[in-house]
Amino acid sequence: MVTNDAQRQALRRAAEWFAHLCANPDDPELRTQWRLWHARSTEHAWAWQQLTELQARIGNMPQQFAWEVMEKSTLRESGPNRRTLLKGLLLGAGTCSLAWQGYDIAPKWMAEVKTRIGEQRQETLSDGTLVVLDTDTALDVIFNASTRLLILRAGEIHVTTGKDSRPFRVRSAQGELRALGTRFAVRQLDGLTRLSVYNHAVAAHPEKAADEAVIEQGQSVTFDSQRLLVTRPLERGEEAWARGRLVVEGWRLDRLLGELQRYRSGYLGCAPEVSHLRVSGSYSLSNIEVTLDTIARSLPVRIQQRTRYWTRILPA
Amino acid sequence: MPLGNPIATLYNEHQPWLINWLRKRTGCSQAAADFAQDTFLRVLLAERREPVAAALNEPRHFLVTIAKRVMIDSFRRQSVERAYLEVLAEQPESFAISPEEQLSLLQSLLELDRMLDGLGVKAKTAFLMSQIQGLTYPQIAEQLQVSASSVTKYMARATERCLLYIVDNPW
Lengths: 316, 171
Description:
The complex is a heterodimer. By secondary structure, chain A is an alpha+beta fold. Chain A has three domains: 80 residues, no CATH class; 123 residues, Jelly Rolls (Sandwich); 72 residues, Phage tail protein beta-alpha-beta fold (3-Layer(bab) Sandwich). Helices cover 25% and strands 33% of the residues of chain A. In chain A, strands 1, 2, 3, 4, 5, 6, 7, 8, 9, 10, 11, 12 and 13 form a 13-stranded mixed β-sheet that branches. In chain A, strand 4 and strand 5 form a beta hairpin. Chain A starts with a helix and ends with a strand. Chain B folds into two domains: 110 residues, no CATH class; 56 residues, Winged helix-like DNA-binding domain superfamily/Winged helix DNA-binding domain (Arc Repressor Mutant, subunit A). In chain B, helix 1 packs across helix 3.
């Protein structure tokens, strides 16, 4: 329950901020103002946290289905002067969906650089650094006189750092990475961060760990906010995604589909009887449907496609 | 319940009367009994937050107020459930969601309906268009034939209502 006026007031302000940020999600001035507001008091942070909670409750419904139900029930009471409004509208850019991945105070849609599901994009930053954003990725770029900082809010980035005397860091939900070399990738997983080092080395510092650990070229490490959990050699072809290819060697089919799933909306899965089949190859990430056909032709399987958003691989 | 509990007193003295009142309203003994049960349950929950039962001047008036609310909520719930089933029935055969997903989807929709309860239809519509349909403010403004700044106001009002609901109804 709201116990005091400060909380009540903070909720009202959080709602106003949300409404304004939805209107202008890319307005840097507004975002700066919002950050200041958010940091000003614990009530403000608490109130904003309730928005994340709201998302958890209503943010994951199938869009069209949920809309039709609400239109038939909740909005029906509005009487005869309501036009057939709302039917058949094209979906907007979704600039302000509550469906963000709320690990941080700032939701995903507020990040400066974003890719949609299935999209990959290369950005050149002001220092000459090249960043490839993988599917469904959100990134903030904070460069100032003394530092270069990327904040990865979701997804995966591949970084080739530009020559510059300022330190280069990447922050994830679990900690911070300091570039010692020039080429590496960072992926934000659910509760974990994975770092893959392709050139020289990167220092990894889980948020609550006492020290940083230097990860050498050819290594990949996965960590939570406490410690490094898994260190392993890079797999062949692991960097290929940054060029739009998925290169795999002897992967189980279910693992491959799990990876491809990230690049398209909807359900993609397989029957248990075929999940163990092994797959090797180089697959395009720009057209997953073609890739699925290619895979299906190389295995004793068939594709069952019920809708655009529901695909399952079955025994042939 | 211990003797002297104000809720117990309320229940013992007025429950038969309330059922009778509800039976006249609904024309159904079963529904009346269910509504009465839900009414006392709600009184009990409210009492934990803020005890009022002992100090009621007009206990029957109080019970009727709550009972009306229970009935309205029940009809709203039925309305959402019916709409849900209608939309489900309209889906192509290929629309496959598991029973667990169905249940959680229906729960979310019911909750969303309760959150928005009491808002004007424009505020509701603006919020749902933005958050469920993913429309932009200019698109919403055009649909509702209002200004963009009105959309912002509707959104703020609806969001505040949702946040208050979240805070008052923790999972």
